[in-house]
Amino acid sequence: MNFVFTARFILAFTGGLVVFSLGWVNPALLWAGLCFDLALIGAALVDAARTPLRGSFTVRRTCAERFALGSGNTVTIEVKSHSPLPLTLWLKDEHPPEMEVQGREGQFVLPARGTAALAYELTTPARGRFQFGDIAVRLLSPWGLVWRQTSVPAAESVKVYPDFRAAQRQVIEAYRVGRQGERRQRLRGQGREFESLREFVTGDELRHVAWAASARRGKLVTRQYQIERSQSIILMVDCGRLMTARIGNFTKLDYAVNAALAVAYVAVAGGDQAGLLTFTRRVDDFLPPKPGAGQLGTILELLHDVQPQMLEPSYARAFAHINRYCRRRSLVILLTDVVDADASSDLLAHTASLIPRHLPLIVTIGDRDLRAFVKPRPASLDDVYAQSVAEELLAQREQALNRITELGGLALDVPTGQLSPALVNRYLEVKTRGLI
């Protein structure tokens, strides 16, 4: 049966049953109630037959090609009428069950040969590929006794990507709001790419004096430099066991992926070449550094389905891959986490292999829950033990980061909530200081 009775039918049918139940008072009421309900059922069947589904309307789902992790994504169900009469419709979309939904169904009147739309919002809990189902449609019959129902084939898959919208906002924030003026003041004199000559002033470094030009002009002249463009940035993302830890609604890997994407957007916008390497026990994906917006699309595609695995990461294989296939000096940004001495020593040993050819920036993703243990005054013996463990782990992490700095690399330890802006700012700082 491809129809269901409406509230109007049920109310009328119930009235007939009430009359039927009074048959013990008057037998005529018994027959009257019975005939009324039978006639009502017959009318409903005729009403259903007079409600053609085919050709009355068309339904289409539209949504963005790319869903962003953790943000609202709008889905629209568009309906177009082919009937000369108004139609009353009820729609319900079969959204991916893993996603949180707001308002995926609704009822409305469609004007004669008119159009209408039902919009609702989905919030995505994870990256990857998800599946939409069909669209359920009910059409109210002319007499309002039944809903004719059908299912419009609309199965499709959708990809959920890292939060590229936040990455795009990071570019705007870095280059148009707070950082642009600061960068303009700091560009000259600290980069690697020659820009122009100017008269020497007190405070300029002697190593920047252009002696030949000074001799020709009869006064000291200094070289001005600007930040070198088209430098090489390699983003290394650890997908191992420690990155499975959840902070709020997302894993540490989710935060790392979002931060890597933000840096890639800013780097490409600034004219640099961005590359990507993901690894666990082996190198899973490697994308050599290249410039241009097309590289961003490739990075986004590689990152959309990266998932953490319960495996120990092999820093040796990851860094060996960088040394083997990246001959040009690069800023190598490793997004990882370390919580014990063994992991720290392994990371340190192989980080040293990158220096001096490359400049490593080791980013450890801080656990805000771990820091929360050491702040309050312990209220019990269990709290004392928990604080002791947390303090030991934090101390080991600090020693490892200090050792990286001593070796000639860079280190950054930041909580997940501040990871993307902090990493983008550190990248810009490295550029302005001409360290690459």
Automatic annotation (TrEMBL):
Entry annotated with the keyword Transmembrane: yes
The keyword Transmembrane helix is assigned to this record: yes
Keywords: Membrane, Transmembrane, Transmembrane helix
Positions of the DUF58 domain: 197-349
Pfam families named among the record's database cross-references: DUF58 (PF01882)
Membrane-spanning ranges: 5-22
Top-level division of the source organism's lineage: Bacteria
UniProt-recorded name of the protein: DUF58 domain-containing protein
Species, as recorded: Chloracidobacterium validum
